[in-house]
Amino acid sequence: MIDSRSLAGSDLAGRMANGGVLPVDLPPDSADRMPIPADLHDPSPPRSLRAALRSHGPRWFLVIGLQLIRARVQLRGIRRGKWVRVRGRVRVHNEGRIVLHDGVRFRAETADCELATWAGGLIEIGAGTTINYGTSIAAAGTIRIGRDCLVGTYVNIMDSTFHNLGDRGWALDPEPVTIGDRVWLGNRCMIMKGVTIGDGAVVAGCSLVTRDVPPNTMVVGVPARVVKQL
């Protein structure tokens, strides 16, 4: 988890601003069981099983084949582009529309991802975006996520509060959420209804975003505020 207090002004913040990738510490034997390919956050990962075989060998060829099969089974009824992959489990409640463009990846091994739309709702996720485990995206209206975004673990994105303040009764009252291209949403951040996040922005872990985020900025805190121009 990325703590917003340690993030601001730290070396980690600098690495995030410069597009760095956080280190992944694996148990000693895990690399033998499940190799992590160099294309994990590559903007141009292999687009065919032949390319996967050529790049990573037969074991990763089989792993990617299983990810493609999981996507076909778990995301059936959803409009999908090419090369959409699932590691783990994605749970879907779809009364509206969900659109996943080419190369969208779900890394949901540790905890399930959730995609939920209500009648008239739309979730659209741009090409090359990676969604990490525990993330929940719920749309009563419209949620659009751009291309080549990184969505951290346990991120919550919703375009409605789903209840009113008076009697706490069920009330959708959605306001659209738009997330631009190449946005990084840190672990456990929350994106509230009516928010627009500009291209290239970074939202630090555990931040609560209640207002628009300008392009190419880093925001931190509860509520999130701009701390750095990228």
Polypeptide structure, described:
The protein is of the alpha/beta class. It has a single domain, classed as Hexapeptide repeat proteins (UDP N-Acetylglucosamine Acyltransferase, domain 1). It has five helices and 18 strands. It has helices at residues 4-7, 11-17, 30-33, 49-56, 58-74; strands spanning 79-80, 85-94, 97-100, 105-117, 122-125, 130-132, 136-139, 142-145, 150-151, 156-158, 177-179, 184-185, 190-191, 196-197, 202-203, 208-209, 217-220, 225-229. Strands 2, 4, 6, 7, 9, 10, 12, 13, 15, 16, 17 and 18 form a twelve-stranded mixed beta sheet that branches. Strands 1-3-5-8-11-14 form a six-stranded parallel beta sheet, with no helix packed on it. α4 (49-56) packs antiparallel against α5. The relative contact order is 0.12. Mean pLDDT is 82; it is low at 1-41.
**Mean of pLDDT:** 82
Percent range of helical residues: 10-25%
Q: Say what oligomer this is.
A: single chain
Q: What is the number of domains?
A: 1
Order of helices and strands: HHHHHEEEEEEEEEEEEEEEEEE
Global Rg: 18 Å
Which second-level CATH architecture applies?
3 Solenoid
How many β strands by DSSP? Answer: 18
Q: How would you classify the helix and strand content by structural class? A: alpha/beta
Give the C-level CATH assignment: Mainly Beta
CATH homologous superfamily descriptor: Hexapeptide repeat proteins
What is the CATH topology descriptor? Answer: UDP N-Acetylglucosamine Acyltransferase, domain 1
Low-confidence parts lasting 5 or more residues at pLDDT below 50? Answer: 1-41
% residues in beta strands? 25-35%
Number of helices: 5
Inertia-based shape: globular
The biggest sheet amounts to: 12 strands, mixed
